[in-house]
Each structure stands twice: as structure tokens, then as C-alpha cells.
UniProtKB/TrEMBL annotation, chain A:
Pathway: Glycolipid biosynthesis; glycosylphosphatidylinositol-anchor biosynthesis. It is found in: Endoplasmic reticulum membrane. Pfam families: PIG-U (PF06728). Its main location: endoplasmic reticulum. The keyword ATP-binding does not apply. Belongs to the PIGU family. The chain crosses the membrane at residues 71-99, 111-128, 158-180, 192-209, 221-241, 247-269, 290-309, 315-336, 348-371. This is GPI transamidase component GAB1.
From TrEMBL, chain B:
Pfam families: Gaa1 (PF04114). GO terms for biological process: attachment of GPI anchor to protein. The keyword Transmembrane helix applies. Keywords: Membrane, Transmembrane, Transmembrane helix. The lineage of its organism: Eukaryota, Fungi, Dikarya, Ascomycota, Saccharomycotina. This is GPI transamidase component GAA1. The chain crosses the membrane at residues 20-41, 350-383, 404-424, 430-451, 463-492, 504-524, 545-567. GO terms for cellular component: GPI-anchor transamidase complex. It comes from the Eukaryota. InterPro entries: Gaa1.
Amino acid sequence: MAQLETAALALTLLTRVAIPQLSPSLTEYLENESVLFSTLITSYKSLNEGIFFFKNNLNIYDGGVVHTPPLLIYIIGEFFQGLEIVLWPFIDVIICFTLINISKKFPEKKLKPWVIGFIYALNPIGIMENISKSWLIFHSLFTVILFHCSLNKQWLAMGFFLSLCSYLHYQSLVLIIPIIKISNTINFAKTLFVFFVTSTVLYLASYKLSNNSNLFINSTYLTSFYFAKISPNLGLWWYFFIEMFEFFIPFYTQIFNLLQIVFIIPLSLRLPFQFSFLLSVAIIKFGNNFAELTDLILISGLFLTQSYIFGHLKLAYLGVLLLIMAVILAPIFYHLWINLGSGNSNFFYAITLLYNLGLAISLVDYIWAVLQWEFKLDTKNKNVNKIGLF
Amino acid sequence: MALLEELYRVIIKLGLVPKIIKNLPLLSIILTIIGVAWIAILPNDGNFRQTYISENALMPSQAYSYFRETEWNILRGYRTQIMNFENDNNNNYNNNSDGIYSNLKTMENWFLDIGFKTNIYHSEFGNTLYAVYHAPKSDDTEAILLGAAYFNSDNEFNIGGLSLAISLARYFHRWSIWSKNIIIVIPETPNLALRSWVNAYHTDLDLTAGSIESAIMLDYASVEDNFKYIELYYEGLNGQLPNLDLINVAVSISEHEGPRISLHQTIESELYINNYWSRLRILINSIKELSLAGIKNGHGNEAFSGWRIQAITLKAKSFGEGYDITTFGRVPEAIFRAINNLLEKFHQSFFFYLLLGPRLFISIGTYLPSAGLIVAAFIISSLDKILNSGFEINHLLKYGINSFLIFGIILLISLILSQLLPILSIQLNYYILILSSIILSISSIFIKIPIKSEIKILLRSLSLLYISIILSSLLVLNFALTFTIALFAFPLTFINESLEFHQSIINSILLIISNPFILSLIFSSNFDNGQIQEFYNGLITSWKYLGSHTWFIIILGWVSVWLTIAITTFGEDSSRNKASEFKIK
């Protein structure tokens, strides 16, 4: 088994390193033009722009084109310049490794860990997403590690990775809610302490890096929060921010931001930790203001680790088919709109609706499956009061 | 969700699932028949609509057109000069390009005299003369293009077109009303030379005039002063069409001036007929021409595809009597005046439509289901191959990775073929392709190789699913091509286990009638020379130089599936004897 797991990891590395070498045109397309695999916030192009500004001692956020957190720019620009073609595949290997380890935590596993590794390694969307070099993959990495740490009850590490997650993607802050569920006061205090210390360090470092100014907050988090530079993406919301609906924009801003967190408390109250964590991640990503396929890879990777639920899924085929259809049609409809001009924004928005419908159906179906699984477990062991793992 | 639940219960209660599964092949055939019948129903009253000008700013024919008798004299003057070119063309027939180049130079001087800025663009496919008039009142960001190819698509000398283009240029230059720049283009041929000019215009030419809003190509290949009607060409590459408003404007202006518009080679005597059969003929022709766009010799409007330019070609037909040549000049004049009024790009009217007549159209929502149903039929027969195979799905899944690998290798082979074949000599490899296709189809009757039944089933199902995915993603991009491929590849769904001799023969026949190379024998009869290599040549050059995706889709989407299914017919499961295999069925 261990060999197969190593093989999966090797395959992850191989596919992600070799395919860009074999087909440079695909790499160029994915890095620069693809609307599905990165957004204006997370694109490799904008990251490079930031690195260029940084290297030339210019203020990174002056031009208004960079929305990358300053530390990421600093680390990649200083230490990994020229190593990008290895760095991104390597991150994917760590994610794959962590996912395999997470799936081992659950005694009731259905898919063998190495199968999960292979699925992650050979998923064509995952490969393309990696080639596109969206920096959101770092957020995926920290989220997966955070999940792993919380399953292992490593309270200090949890605080650290939660801080890193929220630094890259502020919405991830709400992941603290499912974490409260599994911790008592003392443990939570530990986590919270590390979280605050790390966050302060990150903030101070960012402040220092952006020439002693708070400009980076405006360019990274607030741009996202206020939908300030919204552009077409896979998410649900960009369509609402076109000129026509200008009057309602403050309303939309509040509602759409609220929607990202409003489901998380009830879900965390009701469901066992592993599911509430997964669903929290999925809901944050579902209501994301800048959605991309990196999100889908993260969600599906985390869901795969809970494969014992799959037997209870009822609409899995429908959800998966919708997602596949949307992923195939979205670039075509985008091409019709942007390049050929014969389609219009409604074409692309219709497909993003299809994509989000697929995602929503999968989520709802997943919650249903969790409840079914709980019920079966409940009736099987009448004497067990506590449901689930934690 | 509750609704789905409810539906699910009803279906279970009625026991519909096993019944449907048993009848999947029938369902697939029925869907295809409905899909084809749908096209036949479209020309009935009530399914199509009258065209209308959607963009109010256009106001076609609202201004009086002045391109009349005075200009006729100038036109005749230019024409007399251009007639000398023809002698030139004939004299230097062996050294044609030099002769043409010097003529382009002469015409360049005329444009310079009028007051245009000019340039000659050289490419490996021929030279292109173009002249730009930067309209004084315009903001210099948009342009309207008028073109006339030196030789038209039938390789005739475009005398009338050239003289019209130059005299119109002279005439336009005197007006002060233009809010958009004017570009006059004279390519050597309306296909590759023009296409390379259009690409160069958007990438590396120095003399430009902003984004081209629309392009009108003129084709008047005669010295005669009179013509009877106008043929309109509008189909672009890769299933693209110009905005319907441009066609509406052209039709309404032309019929306002007098000449009738003919679509898809409608002959003169049928121009006034508007009944079911005439509409059906135009519809079927338009599907045929749209799927062959780029492969056939283009008329000039194809060359503008992909750059957001609305382009049409006007071709004068039936010379000798009827309307005079200035009428043919007044049509582009009035179209120019209409487009000149536009404040925005063409966006109001339809981009996806099929025409049933110059003033009759069907919009996308009405015609799309026909191809959609055939594509759905592929999905259903793909399901049928698995569900009615006699094997448990879990048992089949064990062979999943093997069959995925085999299919992947075939896809890779097709990808290599698609890149390799265009490099080889055209005539030679065309006959080889047809021959090898026939041999592959027939030899399965005599030769068998051991392949497990499970793998055969999975390969068939997988390849049908694959073609349905390809076709459904092509559906909106290129309806005509999708419909044609779906229709002609459909016999592939009937190929089944060949347990008996007659089934083997049926399989071979099905393979033959669904092979793109063999089918092209029928298609090529439609071409001007009726030559097979002409078709193949068009297919490859359009892919290499025009940017048309037809070749790629045919090889990667159709041939790969055909190849996979052809290979499955060779298979014989040696682990089971025929009797037991029969029992499974």
C-alpha cells in the first residue's frame, strides 16, 4: 500500500511537471487567458506583476493591478523566482500527501487511501489548475493541513494554519466556528493565542513589506470584500455588479458577504466536526466573490477523504454531470462572448449558474448523505450517544 | 429536491426504469428521427419569422443614393483601363503574379490620385492592395470596409467589381458625411490572400484605420453593363455568421433598388417563389454550406471571421439585361450610409440564425433542439451498450482502466494523424485514407483478433459518450457541422457484437457509411470540379491557413470514434465459446 501511495505522489509530481513541458501553448493559455482557472486576484500574471514591482522597489499596490498579499509576493519573489515550475507541482504533492493521511484517520474508509491519491493525481481539472499557477493553491494547502491538524488535535498548529488561511483568503476566518466545536476552553485559548500571535506577525511583516503602509489591506481584502474590481468568473455574483444594477450595489455587497458565513453556524452545531469543516469550506467557496476551479479541486479532494459517505449520495450522478458539462461549456461560451462577440455575457452567466447548480446539488446531497449515515450509525449502536467521531 | 423525490417515486412505482432500459436502442433511433424531422418541420408556417431591422439607428435607404449616371461615366472610364489588365493577365499567363502586381501598382496610383493612403501587403498567398480614407469628421477608431478580389472565387477576372470599388472610392471621398474611416481592399484572391491580409491588419500592418465594423465584398465578374439579381453570401468560418441586421439591411436596400436577393444559389426563376419546398431547399443548402464553410472556395466574407467583423459578399448574377451596374454600386453605398449611422457595434439583432429566404429566419432556440436530440441519442446508445450488455456494471468496471487506456491511445493516434496528414502530399494520402478505411471496415469479416467482450462493450460505450461530449460542446459554436457529423456518424451506434456472419456484414456496411473519408466521395461531387482531392485540399488548407477547426474536429472527434468502433468489430472473445456468448446476449 505504501508503495502505491508513493506512486500516487510521484504521479502527481510527474503530471504537473511534464505536461507544461510537453505543451507550452497550453501553459501559456492557462496562465494568461483562462477564465476558469484563475481570477484577476489570484492569477499568475498579477503575481508576477507584484514581484516585478517589488523587485524594482516600487510600491506594489500603486498601479491597482496587484491584489496578492505582500508576504506571498515577497516569499515567491525572493526565494522561488525561477523555481515556479517545480514549486506549484510540489505544493500539489503535499496536498495529495495530506489528503491520503487524512483519509487514513477514518476507520470506516471505503476508498483506499492510494485510490484517493491517484484520483487527485490524474484529475485533469487538477492538473490544468496547477499549470495555470493560481496562487490560491497555497490557500488550499493550508486549509488541508488545518483539517489534518484539527483531526489530530494539534491546537497550536491549528492556530498557526488558520491564521495563514485567513491571511490568503479572509473568508477562511469563519473556519474557527467548526473548530470551537471540538475544543474546550483551554485548548481553544491555545489556538486563539497562536492565531493572534501569527496574525500579528503576518500583519506587521506585510505592513513593513508594503513600505510601512496599510495600502495592502485595501488592495487585497477590501477589493474582494466590496467586489470592487469584479470581473467575469465562475462565481455567482459578478453578474450583479454590472452598471445596470448600480443602485443596489451596497445591498448586494452586504447580502453576498453575509451569505458566505450565515450557514456555517447552524451546520457546525448540527453536524460532526469533519463534515461541518468540509461543508464550511465548501460554502465559503460556493459563495466566493472570485470563484475558480481551484475551489472545486479543494472541495472534491476533501470530500474524497470522507468516502464512506458516498454510499448514501442520491444525486451524485446529476451533480457530477452538471459540473462536467459546465466545465466543458464555460470556456466555449466565454470564447463566444469575449473573442467572437456573437454571444453575450448571459451565455457565460448561464453556464456559471449551471456550475453553481451542480455545486449546490452536490452540497445538499452531501448533507443528506451525512444525515443518513448518522441515522444508520445511530440505529446500529443504540448505546452510543455521541454521533460521529467527535 | 422534493419535486425530484416525488418524480423518483412515481418512476419506481410504475416500474419505468427496466422498461426504458430495455428499449434504449429504440429510444435513441426515435430521438434521431425526431431530430431530422425537426429540420423538415421548420419551414412550415409558424416556425419561422419575418426578419426585421432591430437596430433603429441603421435606417436603410432613408437617404437618397446618388451613385447614378454621372458616376457611370467614371466607372466606365476605370473599366476601360481595367480591361487592359485582362490582356495583361492573358499575356503573362505563365508569369501571372508579376502582371497582377504591376496592375495592383497601377490601381494604387489611382487611389493615391483620389486622395487615399495606400499600401500593398505581400504574403505567400498573393498581394493585397488596400487604400484607407481617414474620414475628417471621424474619431479615427472605426472603419467600414469595401473589397473586391482581383479574381473572384470562380477564378474569373472581377472587372466590374474592381471598377466599382475604385469608382465608389472616388465617390465616397467627395462626401463629408462619413463618421467612420473607409477601407478599400483589393486582394488577389478572396481566400488565402485576403485572410492573411485580415490577420496582418489586426497584428502588424502600419497603415490601419481602426477596428473594422463591417465588410462588404463585391463580385461582378463581367464587362457587361447590366445584371439581373444579386447573390448574397454570409456564412463565416467555424459556424460564425454576421449579425442578422447586416443581412436585413443588405436585403432591404437591394430590393428597394430593384434586384432580388438570391440565397444559396437559388436560380433566377425561383426568386419569387416562397413555399414550403423553396424554404426547405434554402434551409438544407444553408446547413450544407455552413458545414462546408472554408472547405469550399470562399467568396471573401469568410476571410473576416474571428475578428468581430460582420461581413457579406454581394455577387451580381445573370449579366446582359436588367439593372445597370450603378444599381449594384448603390447597394454598397446605401449599406455604407446605414452602417455609418451606427454608434455602437452590431449587437441588437441575432448572431445565431438560419435563413429560409432573404426575409425569413429561424432563431437559435427553434432549431437547436434538432441537433441536440441527435446528440442525446448518442448518449442514450452509449448507455445502452453498457446497460444491455448482459454484464453487471460492477463487473464491467474492472475493465475500465484498460479500456480507458486503449481509447486514450487511439485518441493520441488521431491527434498525431491530425498533425501529420496535412504535411504529407495531398493526393497520395487521400487515396490511402479512403482505401485503408474501406479495408478496415471490410476485413473484420475475415480477420479476428482476441479482445475481451467486456473491453469491447466499454470501448463502444466510451467512444459514443466521447463523441456526444464533443458534439454537445460544438452545438452552439457550429450548429451545421454538429448536425452533419451527428447525422452521418449515427450509424456507428448500431454496431454490435458480430456473432453471426450477417451481423459482421451489417457492421461492415455501417462502418463504411459512417466513415468521413468515404462519405467525402459524395460530398466532393458537390464541388466545382467534382474532384475528391479538391475537398480534401480545402479541408486541410482551411485548417492550416484560414483557422477553420473543421479538420481537427473531424479527425479528433469523428475519426477517432470510428477507429475505436472499427477495432471492436475485429474482436473475438476466445475465453468464451460462441454458444455461451450467445447465451449472455
